[in-house]
Amino acid sequence: MQFEVIARCGQARRGRLTLAHGSVETPVFMPVGTYGTVKAMAPNELEGLGAEIVLGNTFHLWLRPGIEVVAAHGGLHRFMGWPRPILTDSGGFQIFSLGPLRKVQEEGVAFASPVDGDRLMLTPELSIEIQRAFDADVVMVFDERTPYPASRDETAQSTELSLRWAARCKNAHAGNANALFGIVQGGMFEDLRERSLGALENIGFDGYAIGGLSVGEPKDEMRRIEAFIAPRLPEHRPRYLMGVGTPEDIVEAVGNGIDMFDCVLPTRNARNGWLYTRYGDIKIRNARHRTDTGPLDAACACYTCRHFSRAYLNHLQRANEILGARLATIHNLHYYLTLLAELREAIAAGTLDRYTGQFKADRARVIEF
Amino acid sequence: MQFEVIARCGQARRGRLTLAHGSVETPVFMPVGTYGTVKAMAPNELEGLGAEIVLGNTFHLWLRPGIEVVAAHGGLHRFMGWPRPILTDSGGFQIFSLGPLRKVQEEGVAFASPVDGDRLMLTPELSIEIQRAFDADVVMVFDERTPYPASRDETAQSTELSLRWAARCKNAHAGNANALFGIVQGGMFEDLRERSLGALENIGFDGYAIGGLSVGEPKDEMRRIEAFIAPRLPEHRPRYLMGVGTPEDIVEAVGNGIDMFDCVLPTRNARNGWLYTRYGDIKIRNARHRTDTGPLDAACACYTCRHFSRAYLNHLQRANEILGARLATIHNLHYYLTLLAELREAIAAGTLDRYTGQFKADRARVIEF
Asked: In this predicted complex, what is the ipTM?
């Protein structure tokens, strides 16, 4: 893995990440491909939209279709027909979403499979082994997601456990030429965030992620921690803010120097008819769109906006047609990927502040919802 | 509308149908777009698959999104983003599927809307008015679907009612430059089929369809009636066998001189993991495909077979991923459209018998299911 910062604008960085399966221009948004497919999209569409890297979910793919099936294809790329880079999460986030069904031990996390109830255990070593079998370009360490809210003591204990697991992941990753990223935890406590980051740097990783945000905390708490820790992440390594977020969150975080993002919002919201535009968000199922022959966004160049009316999108969503989910997903991913492309241009041109100001003013117009 | 027979081979015909929105090479298969979308497909994919005409359902589109919404777009073509020809059915077939919810009168059919329970009535005149508002290239007459089984008396009465409605449709269609097709009814009675055809010819239509088949009767009954009536349809007009059928049904009917087909089988079966290949059908959800890294059909040139494994298709179907429905639909439509293209070539080359023999031998191999 190589990472090069090409331009800066304030704390923001315009970079290029070179991975085993290709290079990625940063800041970058990674569409989420939970079960080996970015929901409703085919790989050729994702390429057409300009996606350069997607995220795969270790936990879900481990349970279905299983390691051996993906490994029989030589990895996740050929299995899902996506030749470009893939980042896989560690499975930790999903396991900690199981609630009382899981039990955290020093060794790892025991849980009952939500697919068939089997008793399973995921450990740092197993997570790394699975991600290696998937041939992920970027492997994430297995860590505990600190709950929110959590006391300082609980957070400190959880952070230390994650650090011991991070060291085991580093050992287990030995011999794998792909990249390994550490994840900074520490909850809502700035000193614990610093403690986590320092210890991870001592272990040494190819990139550093911020975990444990966007887990239910108020937005200003999230922004406070992100603004605190982002600029402290190593200067010459990619910085990844996990699971975030809205267009506004991303613009803010790019300003704080974040290079990589993933989030289910554009794809999940698309399937529910929630569409992003430069001038605010639109709920296309709303009756006001029922007879509207105009496009969703006249200024948008995506396939959906160039070919179909709001009335047609409204109709497809109400009739629960697959094409409705597809056209909405195309539009939302186009919105996110174009937003990131514009942010990259603005950083390179040294005009990020102006871009951000215009972005906020446009989005605040919210002509309709 | 123009129709030209370019070549013949036995009773089979290779033709070209010129409609308001483009020309169609026959024999042709028309994918079914119930709610203004061929399920799971985007218009650009349909064009890429070589589809030249699609079918729209008057009944469904009348209820959702309603005539006024489609009409506001100037018709169904712009509403659904499909610039090529469209044939619309009359709504009769769907109404007669409502069972006890509908009441047949001389004037038309009264029924309760399955969407919201509203009391509605569809008449020959209204059906033609709706299809005109949709700007369908081919408009179908509104007729009664004779139930199966039915006595000779019941069938005769139903056939006569359909003929009176056909005459009303012809009158209502006056002034519409698009084509109007009559529908031969008469159930399983050859003399009633002849009576229906003769009366329709006296009224005079641009094309003639065979209705009331594939409604629950045994396959040999269907083939008997089809083989009887198909060659009796007017020589210089397109002949359309409605709602049929399997690949075997279509090959048989092409041999009997049929020019046009529609059926939900390739699209509906795709969503359930039932896939058509030259060497028999495959149920991709079957566990035997779980770890198979080979393509669905190594000889198939479709996007699905060129890029994905059986294991991946199996996984997507089991995980109920939208992409699973999409890739299966692409393959099945490619199969049907390629089959029709090969039949057209064989007719033009005068080798239809040889082609049909090879087709049956290949399909009978059914290597697996």
From this structure: 0.97
